[in-house]
Write a structure and sequence with these properties.
The complex is a heterodimer of chains A (231) and B (383). Chain A has helices spanning 2-11, 20-44, 52-72, 76-92, 98-115, 119-138, 157-162, 166-172, 204-212, and strands spanning 149-155, 173-183, 190-198, 217-224. By secondary structure, chain A is α+β, with helices and mostly antiparallel strands. In chain B, the strands form 3 sheets. A 6-stranded antiparallel β-barrel of chain B has the order 1-10-14-12-11-15. In chain B, strands 2-9-7-4 form a 4-stranded antiparallel β-sheet, with no helix packed on it. The chains are: A alpha+beta (231), B alpha+beta (383).
């Protein structure tokens, strides 16, 4: 038993650089690399399972793992301790959101840093983590949708052809895109659905009112996307 | 179609749009740049382990003896020349006293002998003067004798010339019958006797001159003989030599007494004390171990196959730092000498304490002003 403990102690004898400069370098580099990787993921993702939370989690995971490895260093004891703590939490709590897992992991890492008396690591780590989290939230990183909502127009056949509302759309919207159109025969109304990005989302009602006054527009309906609808 | 005025986009919306793309990119680019700067500023690893040289000075007595006093304590700082320990000097003190007494005795003896000899020399000087006068008188007398003979010889020569003149005249008159042959014979006989007498006197003169010369020589020799007073130093020279021997013996004892006081050869700290008061110690037996306060040298070990090993030449500059703080440069260093062969590193420098490592030892000189302690582990890299 003593020999086993000695072997463990021997393996953890040599320590890498634990300076603050190296820690800052690790945090910066992990964030830079994580951001690039998350951006690449968002740009190349196809399918319906895209999640903004997951994309942001990719960035945070990079940083948290870098922090954890910085704390562990060459200490196999610390590594086993982290493994045990993670296992306990994993089996006791089912975390559906990847971002939640990242936060739990980060909390573990900070606890390990403080417990191993590497206070500077905990302080710098949490500062970086908080700053990056705030930045990702404020910039809405990972959001793929560039439109605020969609506009549904019910038009007369003449209006559907002439599109007299184009100037209005240009007035209210920075970008708009026709995503569907439906015609009900030669005499029936046509329905068009546009995805719109408003110049001022707070004035979407004005858009509806002005559209309603356009000749040929029988009905105008704007639906603004809720952020919660995009996970 | 008539173009309608566009709705003004609120500032908050603009900022948000800006933050989503360009600002985030700028921040990301700044982070990449910052990472690059930090990465490039990161110094090269300190690859070379080294131990600051700890030279252990053994302080030992130069002679056998008994340790009577130990004046230092463990880990006490000492200065060069500071008294560390003292051996028993009672025997040597007694010998010293004996030597001093002997010197005193000899000095007194010399003084007494000198006084006695000087008195005798004064008496002898007075006697000598009278004897010198006698020699001088004798020489003068011989000189006068020589002079008298010379005078006689001159007088006889004058007489001989007159007689010779008379003889020539008679010889001229004899044929004429004015003088007789007997007169001529008488004159000739007189002249012959005078000439014989001159010859005898000349011979006597030669002898007299020799005698005079000898008398003068004796007088000069006696005058040139050393004065009685100057012979005093010669006569007390053996005593003086004995005094010199006694003094050298005393100096030897004094030197041995000095050796009994054991002093520190360096400025340092007492790292070990291996003797106790009252203990009998032998010559060369270590009593105290000293470690210098600071060390200006370190032994660096270059691992086998290191690509930078070829750059290590005497005079090459290095930088030194402690293992736990590689960014804080402690001091510079310079390669002094390189070892001839690979040796096993001290176990303290092994990365794995169970796996020995080998390297080429290199002696480096550390710059002044460092606070490194002997035995401290440091790391160096090429400057």
């Amino acid at each position: 038993m003593n020999g086993f403990v000695t072997v463990l102690e021997d393996m953890s004898r040599s320590q890498p650089d634990q300076s603050i400069e190296t820690l800052v370098l690790a945090m910066l580099m992990s964030w830079s690399v994580g951001m690039f990787m998350a951006w690449l993921y968002g740009r190349t993702h196809s399918g319906m399972s895209y999640s903004r939370s997951f994309t942001q989690a990719l960035v945070l995971i990079t940083m948290v793992v870098a922090l954890v490895m910085f704390i562990i260093g060459n200490s196999i004891v610390a590594a086993f301790g982290l493994l045990g703590a993670l296992a306990i939490i994993r089996f006791r709590n089912v975390l559906k959101d990847t971002r939640d897992t990242v936060f739990v992991f980060c909390a573990l890492a900070l606890g390990m840093a403080i417990g191993s008396q590497r206070f500077h690591v905990a302080i710098v780590g949490v500062a970086f983590f908080a700053a990056v989290t705030a930045l990702l939230t404020w910039t809405r990183f990972g959001v793929r949708s560039e439109f605020d909502g969609h506009l549904t127009l019910t038009l007369s056949p003449a209006a559907a052809a002439a599109r007299p509302f184009a100037a209005l759309l240009d007035r209210h919207c920075r970008r708009f895109r026709l995503v569907s159109g439906r015609a009900s025969g030669r005499e029936g109304p046509a329905r068009c659905v546009y995805q719109i990005r408003l110049r001022d989302p707070d004035r979407h009602q004005l858009l509806v009112d002005e559209l309603a006054r356009v000749e040929g527009v029988e009905e105008a309906h704007v639906v603004i996307n809720d952020e919660l609808t995009e996970l | 179609m008539k173009r309608l005025p566009r709705i003004r986009t609120p500032l908050r919306r603009r900022l948000r749009d800006l933050s989503r793309g360009p600002l985030l990119f700028v921040i990301w680019a700044g982070s990449v740049y910052g990472s690059w700067v930090l990465l490039t500023k990161q110094s090269r690893p300190f690859d070379y382990p080294a131990i600051v040289r700890s030279i252990d000075y053994e302080v030992s007595p130069a002679t056998d003896g008994r340790l009577t006093r130990l004046d230092v304590k463990l880990f006490e700082e000492v200065e060069r020349g500071q008294l560390i320990a003292s051996l028993d000097s009672s025997l040597l003190d007694a010998r010293m006293a004996t030597a001093e007494a002997e010197i005193g005795r000899l000095a007194a003896k010399i003084t007494a002998a000198r006084a006695e000899l000087e008195d005798a020399a004064k008496e002898e000087s007075a006697d000598r003067l009278s004897r010198l006068r006698r020699f001088q008188l004798d020489a003068e007398q011989k000189g006068l004798d020589t002079l008298a003979i010379e005078v006689r010889i001159e007088a006889d020569r004058l007489l001989a010339e007159r007689i010779a003149l008379r003889k020539r005249r008679l010889a001229a008159l004899v044929p004429k019958g004015a003088a007789s042959v007997d007169d001529l014979d008488d004159i000739a006989l007189k002249l012959k006797r005078i000439e014989e007498r001159i010859a005898r006197n000349e011979k006597l003169l030669g002898q007299t001159r020799k005698v005079e010369k000898r008398a003068l020589g004796r007088a000069g020799e006696f005058a040139g003989a050393p004065q009685p007073l100057s012979l005093v130093e010669q006569r007390i020279a053996p005593l003086r030599e004995a005094l010199r021997v006694a003094e050298s013996r005393r100096d030897g004892i004094r030197a041995r007494i000095r050796m009994l006081a054991i002093r520190s050869p360096i400025d340092g700290i007492v790292s070990r004390i291996t003797a106790t008061e009252g203990q009998a110690v032998r010559e060369g037996e270590a009593l105290v171990h000293l470690t210098p306060l600071e060390s200006r040298e370190a032994l660096v070990y270059i691992k086998e196959g290191d690509p930078e090993a070829a750059e290590l030449r005497p005079g090459r500059r290095l930088l030194c730092a402690r293992p736990g703080a590689p960014r804080k440069i402690l001091c510079g260093a310079k390669v002094v000498r390189i070892g001839p062969e690979l040796v096993e590193l001290p176990s303290r420098l092994w990365a794995n304490p169970r796996v020995p490592e080998f390297g080429l030892p290199v002696l480096v000189g550390l710059d002044a002003g460092t606070d490194l302690r002997p035995g401290e582990v440091v790391r160096l890299r090429l400057d």
